Amino acid sequence: MSEMRVYISADYSEESGDREVVEVLNKWSNDKLHKVNFVDMAQVVSGSVSKDPDCRPCDLKKEFNAQINASSSVIIVIGDKTAIREAGSSCERAKGSIFPSCTPYKQNTNGTKFCKISYSFPATNDIGEINTYSYIRHEFEQAKFKNKNIIVVYNSLRKESTWLPWYMKEFENSAQPFWVYNDFGEKDGNYDFIKKALGYE
Question: Of 58, 95, 105, 144, which has the fewest CB atoms closer than 10 Å, so is most exposed?
Fold first, then answer.
């Protein structure tokens, strides 16, 4: 199968995030030992609008939409902190503020700035970027809205249903642990599950 575009949604927090899962997924895609072959579209996002010093949460969400739309599958990594993450949710315009302001992405030390969007029409072809969703929820809602192949994995050796955010409860039965023990008793990624879920067999 030729290279596919896969969007990986995960918590990238330095202290309690799920970077390890993302690193393994990308390792599988880049080595010659595994069949999965994809471009991580979320990495494409991280190198574009986020570099703008005036990048806002709505700018990121708009780009999430574009990259998810260009992907065939979306892998969502659920960690023990995913359900309580609120980054991206503080949009004053979405809350109905008359004089909305927001904190530019990664610019917390510089304080808030006036909203740079003069008005917002209801979205029709995408989940609107003016909303109070966290980044992870926005990614999930866009993938669901666009009927993408959604694959949910836990950053764990077992099913952790209590980690699922309430808006993902429909995936409680299909979500699987990302980690398994290999034949040597070592923790390893659940390659067989990911390969099948992406349609490689």
Answer: 95
Partners of 77 in beta bridges: 153
DSSP secondary structure letters along 38-73: EEEHHHHHHTTGGGSTT--HHHHHHHHHHHHHT-SE
Does residue 42 have a pLDDT over 80? no
Strand boundaries in 22-175, DSSP class E: 38-40, 73-78, 101-102, 113-114, 149-154
Mean pLDDT (the chain, rounded): 87
Residue 128 to residue 189: CA distance in whole angstroms: 34
Considering the domain 4-86+133-197 in this protein, what is its CATH number? 3.40.50.450
One-letter identity of residue 72: S
d(CA 110, CA 113): 9
Give the whole-angstrom CA distance, residue 127 versus residue 46. Answer: 20
Average pLDDT over residues 126-130: 92
Burial state string for 98-133 with b = 16 or more CB within 10 A and e = fewer than 16: eebebebbeeeeeeeeebeeeeeeeeeebbbbbbbb
Is residue 88 within 8 Å of residue 61, measured between CB atoms?
yes
Give the global pTM. Answer: 0.90
CA dist 129 and 115 (Å) reads 13
